[in-house]
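ok so i was messing around last nite and threw this chain in just to see what happens. nothing serious, just curious
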Amino acid sequence: MQVEIANPIYDTVFKYMMEDHAVAKLLVSSIIQEEVISLEPKPQEHATDIAKKIDEKTLTVYRLDFAATIKTNEGRKQIVIEMRKASVTTDIMRFRTDLGHQYSNPANSITLEDGGKEPLQIYSIYFLGDDLKIRDTPVLSVFPVVCDVAAGEVVAGKSQFLDVLSHHCRVVQISCLKRRRRNELELLLSVFDQTNRTSDHRILIVNEDEFPEKYHPLIRCLKMAASDQEIKKQMQEEDEVWGYLQNVERIGFHKGEIKGKAESEAERNQLKAERDQFEAERNQLETERNQLKKDQETIVVNMHKARFPIETISSITGLSHEQIADILTKS
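result:
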């Protein structure tokens, strides 16, 4: 059955999706190919940068960090997961800075029984709108292997020392999805496939029957986002803000180079003022969305106390039974 889902390249939809604990756990577990036992968001700032427009692809830089526990052959292991949704590969310096903060953050460690500290391993996940030009494949896995230099052989053993000084990396090249469904991961990531866009590029069409039952929570979440009036409003506002900002920045694409830099000090100052205004608008939207979420949670709790059936609460609020249960558990 063909269904409409909200386009998750939008910050608003991406965040909505990742705030659903079951969906976030499903997506992260599938991408890192490890069984995630627990996944908790870490306190942070959401970093959003100037959009870069290349071949009509517009994606923001969006940041999410998680503390996770994964299942290993040896038992359980705690790790840090940083997730970035970005426009193009020119955001390298930002990613290096973020990684530097992760490695240097004393909170990214666990306290041992003897009082000592053990640093946590870092997993990075990047959703890129622009591909890396090295291989036309949707998902790349990068992790250093340990080698015997003289013998030229891979060393099979594991070392906690080496693990915490290197990190796993997964890169999702959104532009390379192009209806590829070679395994379950590519099928799951097809919700990002921009070849499924309708005439309204905020909406994608997918065949719900193609997805196994375990992926249905993700599809349901994006279906709900597609019919959520507040989400629709925020998607439209994103389009308006990015369009406005692109006109200000006059960013173009020509022979692989980004053009349109400010030509004078006065012009640079004006662009800085425009960026500051944009950030203020984004912060205001975020504040309003957080307030809306709190109001919605209050409505759920009050209706539950008034003994309204879950089905009625779901019908009025548009929330799933799982989301309602999660709100009531936290209240």
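not much to say yet. The chain has a mean pLDDT of 83.
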